[in-house]
């Protein structure tokens, strides 16, 4: 058993190192940082600053921005990166290395998590300093937000990996996939309490992790009296943790199976054909 675990551990370490290198490379790309990770937080900060009416409006905008940003970064960024790297041959090169898919998965997870934490910090830190009503609910609130963000982003990234493996055209596919994602965010109690929605729609929302991420973030930032006034109940953090952990385990197992299948189907000729098709689309 040790002979099989050893190479996988080494591959995971190599993936960790690769993820850190990709993170530094992304931070050195001004265009990627501004349009991929800075613009969205800046928009929500501007909305919270100018629309805050002193009655938790700014807090609500920051809450919505945090959950939407996690959904976009976790699902859409992962899906786009995976679909693009399958097309440009990166995935094929990873498959050629022993346990390369393990290193690839770890590297992508580390890279996307670090970039996501960076982007979320750009939204949260200024909000805590300058937006009235935005504050942690004690040190437990800060700890809650930390584990909800990390567990939630991991869960969403795994969903994004499965989605990215199914997308054949990175440009068109990712854009189309954003529509159901935004629809899911819309029915998950992020904008208004779910009591306004039909029961069957509420049931759909409860199945997916976006609702539970929202519950965790709400518990970390909203006072109990504000939740009651807004028609929300007190979030059950043990249930939030359990659902997100279950989604993470299921997502990891499904993502591993899908990635292995995708890697087997990826060949040099398919990559070359994808490149030629991408060049046609560019012109």
Please identify the structural class as seen in this structure: mainly alpha
What is the rounded distance between the termini?
52 Å
Strand content: under 5%
Mean pLDDT: 83
What string gives the helices and strands in order?
HHHHHHHHHHHH
Silhouette: globular
Unreliable sequence segments = none
Report the helical percentage.
over 70%
Overall number of strands: 0
Count, helices: 12
Give an overview in words.
- By secondary structure, this protein is mostly helical.
- It has one domain (2-282).
- It is 83% helix and 0% strand.
- It contains twelve helices and no strands.
- The protein has helices at residues 2-27, 30-51, 57-88, 90-95, 100-130, 138-166, 170-186, 199-207, 209-221, 224-229, 237-265, 268-282.
- α3 runs antiparallel to α5, α5 (100-130) crosses α6 (138-166) and α9 packs across α11 (237-265).
- The longest helix is centred in the first third of the chain and has 32 residues, at 57-88.
- It starts with a helix and ends with a helix.
- The mean pLDDT is 83.
């Amino acid at each position: 058993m040790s002979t099989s675990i050893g190479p996988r551990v080494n591959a995971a370490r190599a993936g960790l190192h690769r993820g850190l290198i990709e993170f530094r490379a992304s931070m050195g790309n001004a265009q990627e940082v501004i349009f991929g990770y800075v613009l969205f937080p800046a928009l929500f900060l501007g909305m919270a600053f100018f629309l805050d009416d002193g009655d938790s409006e700014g807090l609500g905008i920051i809450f919505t921005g945090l959950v939407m940003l996690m959904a976009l970064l976790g699902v859409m960024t992962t899906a786009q990166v995976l679909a693009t790297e399958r097309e440009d041959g990166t995935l094929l090169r990873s498959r050629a290395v022993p346990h390369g898919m393990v290193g690839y998965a770890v590297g992508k997870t580390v890279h996307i998590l670090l970039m996501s934490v960076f982007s979320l910090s750009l939204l949260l830190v200024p909000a805590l300093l300058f937006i009235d009503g935005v504050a942690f609910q004690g040190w437990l609130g800060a700890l809650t937000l930390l584990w909800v963000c990390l567990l939630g982003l991991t869960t969403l990234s795994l969903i994004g990996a499965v989605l990215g493996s199914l997308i054949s055209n990175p440009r068109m596919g990712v854009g189309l996939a954003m529509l159901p994602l935004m629809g899911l965010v819309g029915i998950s109690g992020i904008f208004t309490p779910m009591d306004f929605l039909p029961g069957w729609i509420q049931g759909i929302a409860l199945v997916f992790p976006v609702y539970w991420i929202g519950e965790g973030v709400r518990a970390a930032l909203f006072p109990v009296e504000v939740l009651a006034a807004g028609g929300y109940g007190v979030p059950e953090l043990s249930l939030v943790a359990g659902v997100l952990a279950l989604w993470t385990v299921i997502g990891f197992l499904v993502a591993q199976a899908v990635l292995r299948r995708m890697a087997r189907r990826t060949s040099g000729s398919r990559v070359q054909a994808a490149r030629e098709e991408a060049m046609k689309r560019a012109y």
